[in-house]
Amino acid sequence: MDKLWLYTSTLAKGLPVTISLSVSAIIVACGLAILLTILLTSQKAVLTSIIRGYILVFTGTPLLVQIFLIYYGLARFEAIRDHLPLLWDLFSRPWFCAFLALALNSAAYTTLIFHGALKAVPDGHWQACAALGMNQRQTLKVVLPYALKRALSSYSNEVIFVVKGTALASTITLMDLMAYNQFLNGRYYEFSIFIITGAIYLLINGFLSIIMRIIEKKALAFESQ
């Protein structure tokens, strides 16, 4: 029992970093994904090509590589080190680099989810808005919330993926839950440490799943009223 308490209390020290990374990345990624989804409907070839290129890069490469490129790669640019001290200060911080990589990665996947939901909106909704003389901006104000509600089920999986993705933040010296797991394993080398770590991630993701289900049910119930 003493060891169990020692392992759990030590691992708990990494929870604030894991939770702050997860919440910050999820909020920023969701907002960015909504913006990109709207821009994808603009029918502007150059803009849509840039967005699709961004999505291709961040969905086609491993998250770990993205974290390394942001944290280690930007240090090679002398222009940032010598002429942009504020920006260099941000990119020299492990938490910010991990947050940025997670947010950009999640935003790419979330944009695919939201844009797919928008394309799946029945033609009748678009035709009804057109019949009322609505322009594209007004139509999106009506259709986009409907699409986002339908995307909540798929989006909840992405939220969980972000939490699990925070485990990679330990690779750039960030003391999150996984980093404390590695610290304990290096000192005591016991399999139970991994079981406890997995149980903590399971509890976090289980809690998030319940919250997402409640949000989805309330959103759909509000729509049916």
TrEMBL record:
What Pfam families does this protein's entry cite? Answer: BPD_transp_1
Report the principal subcellular site. Answer: membrane
What transmembrane ranges does the database entry give? 20-41, 53-73, 93-114, 159-179, 191-215
Identify the keywords attached in UniProt to this record, alphabetized. Amino-acid transport, Cell inner membrane, Cell membrane, Membrane, Transmembrane, Transmembrane helix, Transport
Give membrane topology per the record: Multi-pass membrane protein
Q: Which residues form the ABC transmembrane type-1 domain?
A: 15-212
Quote the subcellular location field of this record.
Answer: Cell inner membrane; Cell membrane
Report the superkingdom from the record: Bacteria
The entry assigns this protein to a family as follows:
Belongs to the binding-protein-dependent transport system permease family. HisMQ subfamily.
Protein known as: Arginine ABC transporter permease protein ArtM
Record gene name: artM
